[in-house]
Structure formats: C-alpha cells, structure tokens
Amino acid sequence: MQLEERTAELVEKVDAARVASRQLALASTQVKNKALENISKALIKRSDEILLANAGDYESAAQEGLSEVMLDRLLLNKDRLEAMADDVMTIAGLEDPVGEIFDAAVLPNGLDISRRRVPLGVLASIYESRPNVTVDIASLAIKSGNACILRGGHEAILSNHALANVVQDAVIAAGIPSDSVQMIQSPNRRIAQEMLTYKGGIDLLVPRGSESLIEFVREHATVPVATGGIGVCHTFVDSSADIEKAVAIAVNAKVQRPTVCNALDTLLVHESIAPRILPLVAKEWGMANVEIHADERSQLILGDYPEATIKSATTDDWGKEFLSLTAAIKVVDSLEEALSHIDQYGSGHSDAILTEDQSNATIFLDTVDSAAVFVNASTRFTDGAQLGLGAEVGIITDKMHVRGPLGLRELTSYKWVIKGDGHVRP
Known about the structure:
The chain is an alpha/beta fold and 426 residues long. Helices cover 41% and strands 19% of the residues. The chain has 2 domains: 3-226 and 406-419, Aldehyde Dehydrogenase, Chain A, domain 1, CATH 3.40.605.10; 233-381, Aldehyde Dehydrogenase, Chain A, domain 2, CATH 3.40.309. The chain has 14 helices and 16 strands. Strands 10-9-11-8-7-12-13 form a 7-stranded parallel beta sheet, sandwiched between helices. Strand 1 (101-106) and strand 2 (112-119) form a beta hairpin. The radius of gyration is 24 Å and the shape is globular. 48% of the residues are buried.
C-alpha cells in the first residue's frame, strides 16, 4: 500500500511518533520513571472517570451479545485499576535497559568493541477487549524509550480513550512528548490493516486478541511482528506427584482466572496416580462449576460423580483453548505419552509437570517446546508482572527475537560500538 493511500490519521500519528521516538530515546531514566509515577497516581486519582467510560463499553458490549469471556476481559473495577497502578510502579522500579553496554572487548589489533542497547523506535499494537493493555504497553514503551501507537477494539473504545488521555497527561507533566503515546481514534478497520504494512514507520507490531486476529496479522503483515497469545496449556500429573500440591495447582491453573491464555485447558494424569487424584480434582472443580470433558479412562475412575458436571471428551477437546470454566482430562500410561500429546496438541505457550521425580522434571523441561515450562507450579504464572517484568506487551510464542512475556529488554535492540585510534583495515 502506497503512503498516499493510507488513512490520514495513521500517517499523521506515525510521523509524530517517529519524531517523539527520537526524543524519548534520549530521555533520562529519571524522567521516564517520573512519567510512570504520574501514570500510576492518575489511574487511582481519575478512577471514577475511567470506570464510567468502562461501564459504557461494558453495557454496549453486553447488549451486543459479547461472550462472557470477552466481557470479563473488558471489565475494569477498583481492584483491577489498583493492580494496573501497582504494575506501572513495578516497571518504574526496574533497571532501565536503554544504554546498557554488553559484550565489551578489546581486539588484538586494539579496537575497542561493544554492543549498546537502544530502543526499537515505534512500537504498534492491535488488540481486542482488554483495556489494561493500553496502560501495560504505554508504560513498557516509555521505560524502554519507544513511542507507541495503539489500536484497541471497538468494544473498549471509551475505556481505551479514557486511559490514553490519562497516560498522555501524565507523560506531558513529566516532560515527555505527548506524541510518545497515541491511540487511534477512528474505529475504521482499514487503519488496522494499514498498520500491518507501514514499513519505515512502524518498527514492531504486536497483536493481542483472538486466534483469527493473530492469524490475520501473520498472513498480511509486512512490518516486523511478534505474535502469540493462543494458549493451549497442559498440566501433566506424574506418578510421583505430591497429591495435595497437584490438586491445588490444578484448581488454581483452571479456576483463578479461566478466561485468559495461560489458564489450564487439558489435565494429563499418569494412570498409576489417576485413581487417587482425579476424584479430588473433580470435587474441587465441581465446587467451582468447572465442566469436565473426560476421556474414557478418567470417566471409569470418576463414574457418575455427583459433585461435578462430566461429559465425554471428543477429539475436538484436545488442542482446544477453552477460555472458560471447562477443562479436558486424559489418563496416560507414561511421561512419554504425555510429552507426545503436548507435542501434538500444544500451542507452544505454557505447559507444566507436577512431579517429585527430578529426572522426569528435567526430561519434561528439555523436551517440551513451549515459551514457558513449569515444574510444580501453575501455568497462571506466565505473566509479565508475575515473572518480575512489571507487565508485558504480550506472551510471544514465536522463536525469533523474543519468546514468552514481551517486556522491557525485549523492546530494545542494540548497535555495535567500535572505537579506534586511527585504525585502518589492512
């Protein structure tokens, strides 16, 4: 697509972002942290304004018949705003990656070489439903010295604009250019498509949302993209697992927040421990209203279990991201069968083994090809804030540039710095 064919709003904002990115790249850590402190405080101080906008979005989305999953992702409340504010302050407290010198050396010929970490430039994101993404990306972009252009979904348009206004006012007060953080105002879907091909304007684009959105971006983007977020997450209960720990993890991974990409989808259980653990898991899941899709072997163990809703699993349940209070159970004969199942049906997002056998834990960690692998912990920890990053732009399942939570360091590149004293190449 030629430049003159692009929507005027996008051209204007990309041009402004590129100018702002050059100024932001030179901003001191103190100034960037001040902007983040301002954002954190403003999220609480202006919470009534933000929640009023979100209530408008929520009401409209409910009337349109948006699914319970998407409504949960859309919803903001006091607790979620406080969590967002805390995450912003966590980012402020992290080490600034910009300007880091690494791999320094002096060659035999006397050349002094090193690599210096630098911002990417202009970061863009297309995302759906979750308005907290607006603050997460803006905060990470500011701290890493990148300008950002954000395009949220129509279902969160009021919330996103309210949050963007809060962020822009906060960065201006800190002395950072207002164009460092920009929200696309128009709901025109064409703009999102144009962002995918804005080479020379956008340095990295990250989509967050449905599988269809991410596949569309992968298929049509000509700018660099980092994709992921589709989470078909497995937890394997090994024969040596601690029963009490395993039940608690299975409940947390499924129930704590079932509508997100790192929630458990399929529980794989070793046949030797299945008779002891499955009734306990089913009881706890039943109390949380989890619908269980059980294979034949697990159904034989559970029988007509009165405390849970149990249905027969189908082949469609394997490899499915449920994003709801639904989970599949499969009994397997060995670690090898569990690994084979994950290899066939996993999405490369987050997978866990629950075991007291360190040899099996090591085999699992070495074999499972996912962005995050766990031993005796819930997959719900695949989250930038939970892993000490403050927040993340997304969970990336690609293998180039970055994998897993896309945080501060992953939003930078580097340049080679070579210092000589009249050196010429022989």
